[in-house]
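Thread: adenosine-5'-diphosphate complex, take 2
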Amino acid sequence: MTKQNKTKETDNKTTKAGKDAESQFGFQAEVARLLHMMVHSVYSEKEIFLRELISNSADACDKLRYEAVTKPELLADDTDLRITISADNDAKTLTIADNGIGMSRAELIDHLGTIARSGTKAFLDAAEKKGGDAPAVIGQFGVGFYSAFMVADRVEVLSRKAGAKSAHVWLSDGINGFNLAKATKAQDEAVPRGTIVTLHLKDDALDYLNESELARIVRAYSDHIPFSIDFVGKSEEDGKTERRQLNSASALWTRPKSDVTQDQYKEFYHHVGGLYDTPALTIHYKAEGRHEYTVLLFVPTMPPFDLYDPSRSGRVRLYVRRVFITDDADILPAYLRFIRGVVDSEDVPLNISREMLQNNPIVAAIRTGVTNRVLSELKDLEKNDKVAFDGVWENFGPVLKEGLYEDMERRDTLFEIVRFRTSKGDDWRTLKDYVADLRPNQTAIYFLTGDSSEQIAASPQLEGFAARGIEVLLLSDPVDNFWVTTALGFDGKPFQSITQGDAEISAIPLLDDKEDEEDNKDKAAPETAKLVEALKTLFAEEVTDVRTSSRLVESPACLVAPAGGPDRGLGKFLEKQAGKGNVKPVLEINPAHDLVKALAKRKAGAFDDLAWLLLDQARILEGALPENPAKFAERLNRLVLDGKKQN
Ligand code: ADP
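Output below.
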């Protein structure tokens, strides 16, 4: 994602050195909000700042290693990429340094003054709602660089972009914006390449000067970082400065499954996923055969803040022989974008440009293989651990369902995974469950779409189905409107909207047979035919047809869509989105209902008010407004008052 530079240069002291002069900048509003939270944080696990800074350093090393594939001169003679931690007890400073890609002046302004992550605003809103500090939210989101201000009251970032002539210093107290200056001679010499972050620790954070404490934190959160993380300090024996490696520095996914503990998986997931829950499912395997690649993927237990971001792309990282290439190769389709992790290929050429990746046949084969594997693992989870699968479905069900119309090839596989709320009760139901409980003569899978499950469950169209014991899928996610229109069916049964066309359910027996006889008597009555004709004339502009219904039991009327076009749910959805797309409905009436019987008996003059109320009522039951609310009120008042007069 491109960052918009929303920082403002507020005090540009123009000197001979031009833009390299010292300058003062304000933070982007969202950064200021985040920093306010960090500075005042009482979050107890402040130690995560180290994980975040190390993670940034590791990413910087990854980026350099990738760039150096085509430009080896960037590495020069410093080829050993690593992260170095050191502490100065007198100055009360902690330093985290890397010899990675580094940042230019513009990048320092851009990256450390704005936030690129799309879910940031949602995160801030959630955190502020929970009282500003919101440990749970901070812990789960991973707040990045700015978390340094939980433990430091001043942070200095000295950085030189690989290959650049000059280095720059970014300095901030986390409150009043930041200052940017060209590096002094001493600073310039201190950073031949990469970034040095110096934290001036707050008095209550001096524990982080302690090597054993730092070693504990590194082992807890950053052991798997594939670069060496060293502490540089004085040797106890001879007082000389020495490097001591704190982590095991091996790419976790390359180790055999049996050598990796659950904690190590979890810690790695936090690093690659930027999410801090416990994964619901870990998928780790090595594909061998025509193409060789290793896969380590995680299904989160909580939804990331940007799950519904319009850019909707996945974040699986692609490595080639341990070199990070990109997290933008769309290894998984958009409907699996909640999955995090790594794919490491042995066969993709290392010097492939990111643009060429899109069309590379090996990457295409990896995409297919990994996507199929993820779906089969989800199917297994559904079979073997219903509780875990329930959690996945609650969080990501609506996203997975996007696959039902985006991935025709795998639709049948997805049909085995998806679950539904139905008119049968509160439990999730699969299509297999549904088909196993078909009623005699039932040939279709019935569904009803709408805005919310409450509104759907109250729909009059459901009544006839309930009376016949027919289960109906209740679909309230926006994506439902789309896949149902393209899906061909499941197990040979087509999907059929209960708000569209003529519901041919009379062949399915009622649970209580007597009602059927009554119902047919009323339907066949000559008054009914006359009433239908009168309504057709009155509502010629409003509806395409009027007919008696087998859908209704308790309610006097409902609206349905004519056969062929979009059903009522999709029609209303399109109307809401685009202001058009809906077609005139069909009015169905229930001849057995007292109100309809009363209407049939009305004389011409008294007929219209009650007829209009019948139509408006059907609209209201769909969650819509009467076409003309003022007229609706007028008619209702007239009817009530007339009724009073007659009494
Ligand atoms: P994130 O790492 O999630 O993108 P951060 O706020 O932690 O968010 O960092 C913002 C950006 O600053 C990073 O994406 C990266 O471009 C840059 N950055 C931070 N630390 C370093 C570093 N040590 N070396 C190079 N770039 C860095």
